[in-house]
Specification:
The chain has 488 residues and is of the alpha+beta class. The protein is built from 10 helices and 23 strands. A hairpin with a 2-residue loop joins strand 6 and strand 7. The protein is globular, with a radius of gyration of 23 Å. Bound molecules: tryptophan and zinc ion (ZN).
Length: 488
C-alpha cells in the first residue's frame, strides 16, 4: 500500500472526526490537502470539543457526538460483532471474553481506537496478527502490524476477562452497564454502558449486526437480542447463541444470565413473541405481558409495520426501570405495568429501528415513546382520558423550568422535559395537522430511517414534507425555545 503523505493523513483525520453519520460517510469528502482547516461542519449547539485530534493516520477516538466526544470511533464502520463470553453468575465475572469485530476502514488507518473500559485485555489481533494495544482512558488504542487501506474490510479480535464496571450519568438515577444481583447478571447499557462489557464503537451512529454467544453453568439460561439460533450443553455448562440480523446500536445489545422460563405468545403472523420470566412470574403470568400481540397491531396502525422478526420481555430484579433492548425489552419486576410495557414496545420503532444520530436527539426516542403512551390511553380509555392525562403533564412541565428539548444537555438527557415535553410536542403536531397526516408523518419517518439514524432536523423535514407546509414557527416554539407553548 502506498504511504500517504502526512498532510493527506491529517486531512483524513479531520474529516473522520467531523463524521457523525451512521453511514460513516465523512461530511468533508471533497476536501483536498490545504483546504481542510475551516470547512468542516461544526457540531450542533451545546457541543463539547475537548477531544484532541489523534496522531496522523489514526482513526479518531470519538465519532463526533456533541455530548459524548469520546464515544464511537472514527476511521471505520463496524458491520458485525461476534461477542463470546463465559459468565460466572455467582461473581458476575467474565471469565473468558472474546469479541470479534468485522469492520470497514473509511480512511487509510495506521491504527485506530475501540471504546472499552476497565477489563483486562489479554490479546488484540487484527486480521489474525497480534497487534500492539494500549489502554487510553475509556479507549483501547490499537496499532496493527501493517496499515489498513481505505475501503478495506478488516477483522479485530479482542480477548479479555474481568468483571465489568458501570457508567453513571449525573442526571440519570440509574447505572448503566453490567448489573449483578443475587438472582442474575445482566446488561442495561443506555447511553454509554456497552463498552463496559464488549469492545467496539459505542455510539448509535455505528449500528451493526450481532451474534452473541454466552456460556454459563447449568441451570442458568441466557437471553439476548434477536432469535435463539442454538443451544448446546456439555459438562454442566450451557452455551446460547443469539443472532440479531438487523442493525442495532451498541447500547441496545443485552445479555441476561438467570434461571428463566420461556412463555410463548401467539397471535401475530410473522412475529415470534416470547417472554423469559423467573419461575414465580412464569406461573403467575403477569397481565401486562399478555397483550403484546394486540398492542403491536395497534401501534402498526400508527407507526407502520413492526420493524423486527421477534419481540419479547425478559424480567429481572434490581434496577427499578425498563430498557428497550432491541427485540427484547429488559423489565424490572417493579416495572411490569401496562404503560411501561407499551412504552418499551414503542421504542422498537423509535430508538431501536430508527436510531438517533447523536445523543442530543434523545427526544426522538423518549418523546415518541411518551406520545405512544397517549395514543394507547386514547385507545384504551378514550379521548377525554387522554386529554386529561396530557393536561396533567403539561401543567407539570409548566412548573419546572427546563432547557429546550433539542438540546437538553447531558445532565438532563433522560430528564422529564425530554419525555413529557417531547410527547406534548408530538401531540401538538397531531392536533395541528390532523390524524391522517400525523399517521403518514410517523409512518414515513420510520420507513425512511428504518435500520438507520435520524436527527431532529430529519424528523422536521419529514413532517414538513408530508404536511406540505412550513412548520418552522411551530417547531421553533416546541423544540428550540425553553418557554413551554400552551396546549393547542
Ligand atoms: N430508555 C429507558 C426508557 O425510558 C430509560 C433509560 C435510560 C434506562 N438509561 C437507562 C433504563 C439505563 C435502564 C438503564 O425506557
Ligand atoms: Zn423510554
Amino acid at each position: 500500500m502506498p504511504r500517504r503523505s502526512p498532510v493527506v493523513v491529517l486531512v483524513a483525520a479531520l474529516a473522520l472526526f467531523a463524521c457523525g453519520g451512521g453511514d460513516g460517510t465523512p461530511t468533508t469528502t471533497t476536501l483536498r490537502p490545504g483546504t481542510s482547516t475551516t470547512t468542516t461542519s461544526s457540531p450542533p449547539t451545546g457541543a463539547t470539543t475537548s477531544t484532541t485530534l489523534p496522531p496522523a493516520g489514526f482513526g479518531a477516538p470519538g465519532i463526533g457526538d456533541p455530548y459524548f466526544p469520546n464515544l464511537g470511533n472514527g476511521g471505520f464502520d463496524v458491520e458485525h460483532y461476534l461477542i463470546e463470553t463465559t459468565v460466572d453468575p455467582e461473581t458476575g465475572e467474565i471469565t473468558r471474553g472474546e469479541t470479534t469485530i468485522t469492520a470497514t476502514a473509511t480512511a487509510g488507518l495506521a491504527g485506530f481506537y475501540l471504546d472499552f473500559r476497565s477489563l483486562e485485555v489479554l490479546e488484540v489481533a487484527v486480521d489474525g496478527a497480534t497487534a500492539v494495544h494500549e489502554a487510553d482512558g475509556a479507549d483501547l488504542r490499537i496499532t496493527p502490524t501493517s496499515p489498513i487501506a481505505a475501503g478495506e474490510e478488516f477483522v479485530v479480535r479482542v480477548r479479555y476477562r474481568g468483571t465489568p464496571g458501570q457508567t453513571r450519568l449525573p442526571g440519570l438515577g440509574l447505572a448503566s452497564g453490567w448489573i449483578i444481583t443475587p438472582e442474575e447478571v445482566y446488561v442495561v447499557a443506555e447511553p454509554d454502558g456497552a463498552h463496559t462489557w464488549f469492545p467496539g464503537s459505542d455510539h448509535p451512529a455505528d449500528k451493526a449486526t450481532f451474534t452473541i454467544v454466552t456460556t454459563v453453568p447449568e441451570p442458568f439460561a441466557v437471553v439476548s437480542n434477536g432469535t435463539l439460533a442454538g443451544e448446546t450443553h456439555s459438562d454442566g455448562m450451557a452455551t446460547f447463541v443469539w443472532e440479531m440480523d438487523d442493525p442495532m446500536a451498541t447500547y441496545l445489545a443485552t445479555i441476561v444470565v438467570a434461571e428463566l422460563e420461556s412463555v410463548d405468545r401467539t397471535g401475530l403472523e410473522g412475529i415470534e413473541i416470547r417472554d423469559h420470566l423467573p419461575a414465580d412470574l412464569a406461573a403467575e403470568d403477569p397481565r401486562p405481558l399478555q397483550r403484546t400481540a394486540e398492542w403491536i397491531e395497534f401501534f402498526e396502525t400508527w407507526f407502520g409495520p413492526y420493524p423486527f422478526a421477534s419481540y419479547g420481555h425478559v424480567v429481572v430484579s434490581g434496577f427499578g426501570a425498563a430498557l428497550e433492548s432491541q427485540t427484547m425489552s429488559v423489565m424490572d419486576r417493579a416495572a411490569l405495568v401496562d404503560v411501561t410495557v407499551i412504552h418499551e414496545l414503542a421504542h422498537q420503532w423509535f430508538g431501536d429501528s430508527v436510531s438517533i444520530a447523536t445523543w442530543q436527539d434523545i427526544w426522538l426516542n423518549e418523546g415518541f415513546a411518551t406520545f405512544a403512551e397517549f395514543l394507547w390511553i386514547e385507545d384504551q380509555l378514550g379521548r377525554d382520558a387522554m386529554e386529561a392525562d396530557i393536561e396533567g403533564r403539561h401543567a407539570f412541565m409548566k412548573r419546572h423550568s427546563h432547557r429546550p428539548i433539542s438540546d437538553p444537555g447531558v445532565d438532563e438527557l433522560f430528564g422529564s422535559a425530554v419525555y413529557q415535553r417531547g410527547g406534548l410536542t408530538l401531540h401538538a403536531l397531531r392536533v395541528k395537522v390532523g390524524d391522517d397526516v400525523m399517521r403518514d408523518i410517523l409512518r414515513t419517518y420510520v420507513a425512511r430511517y428504518t435500520g438507520a439514524n435520524a436527527s431532529t432536523e430529519d424528523f422536521i423535514a419529514v413532517a414538513e414534507d408530508i404536511a406540505a407546509r412550513d412548520l418552522s414557527v411551530f417547531f421553533d416554539a416546541w423544540l428550540y425555545e425553553s418557554e413551554l407553548p400552551p396546549l393547542p
